[in-house]
Write a structure and sequence with these properties.
The complex is a heterodimer of chains A (111) and B (113).
Chain A lengths: L3 E4 L2 E5 L4 E7 L4 E9 L6 E7 L4 E4 L2 E6 L4 E6 L8 E9 L5 E2 L3 E6 L1
Parallel strand pairs in A: 2-11
Antiparallel strand pairs in A: 1-3, 3-8, 4-5, 4-9, 6-7, 7-8, 9-10, 9-11
Chain B lengths: L3 E4 L2 E4 L5 E7 L5 E7 L6 E7 L2 E4 L7 E4 L5 E6 L8 E8 L8 E2 L3 E5 L1
Parallel strand pairs in B: 2-11
Antiparallel strand pairs in B: 1-3, 3-8, 4-5, 4-9, 5-6, 7-8, 9-10, 9-11
Classes of the chains: A mainly beta (111), B mainly beta (113).
Chain lengths: 111, 113
């Protein structure tokens, strides 16, 4: 089955700086890569996703890049704000199999 | 507007006392999933329904069961909760199994005394 590794497990960033979270996957059949943000005690919320036919996708301060050859994808948050503090999960979807999550990154924005 | 609703948000039960968690959706999605999430961990899929077809994950304990009486509602039954079952239980939906974006409900936090 699919295996997703996520780094770093914790990340502290000064407000206004950029944050980058990286994930690697093992199954070359994976074709859909969502990113979820989960604030303490709340639901995982989809913030951005990318499909395997696209190399990069951007939505305001958030961007995701995908390198299919290297089997890795990254989340980039620019101009970070205190409300960006949360746990972020990457995930990979290999065709008709279940969504496989990374282990999560706890992002703290330092005011 | 709430799209995936879970009730209750917090549930306290006693060791061994059956408990049922509820999920409803207004998205008219074909698939409903149940995940278990323990502190600081990723959600773990327990099972899912594709329409009326139930699909259990191989490592889901028999203690966990599910019912889907109609498109909108899905229930998670824990027959004999143990201390290790204390967790956040998340319901999610998607239009088609796995190929589509999953939308999560707010979760039910279960405490077992």
């Amino acid at each position: 089955g699919e295996n997703v590794e996520q780094h770093p497990s914790t990340l502290s960033v000064q407000e206004g700086d950029s944050a980058v979270i990286k994930c690697t996957y093992s199954d070359s059949a994976s074709n859909y890569f969502p990113w979820y943000k989960q604030e303490l005690g709340k639901r995982p919320q989809l913030i951005i996703d990318i499909r395997s036919n696209v190399g990069e996708k951007k939505d305001q301060r958030i961007a995701v890049t995908l390198n299919k050859t290297a089997k890795h994808f990254s989340l980039h948050i620019t101009e970070t704000q205190p409300e960006d503090s949360a746990v972020y999960f990457c995930a990979a979807l290999p065709g008709n199999e279940k969504l496989t999550f990374g282990t999560g990154t706890r992002l703290t924005i330092i005011p | 507007d709430a799209m995936v609703i879970q009730n209750p948000r917090y549930q306290v039960t006693q060791f061994g006392k059956p408990v049922t968690l509820s999920c409803s959706q207004t998205l008219n999605h074909n698939v409903m999933y149940w995940y278990q999430q323990k502190s600081s961990q990723a959600p773990k899929l327990l099972f899912h329904y594709y329409d009326k077809d139930f699909n259990n994950e191989a490592d889901t304990p028999d203690n966990f069961q599910s019912r889907r009486p109609n498109t909108s509602f899905c229930f998670l039954d824990i027959r004999s909760p143990g201390l290790g079952d204390a967790a956040m239980y998340l319901c999610a939906t998607s239009r088609e199994p796995f190929r589509e974006t999953q939308y999560f409900g707010p979760g039910t936090r279960l405490l077992v005394l």
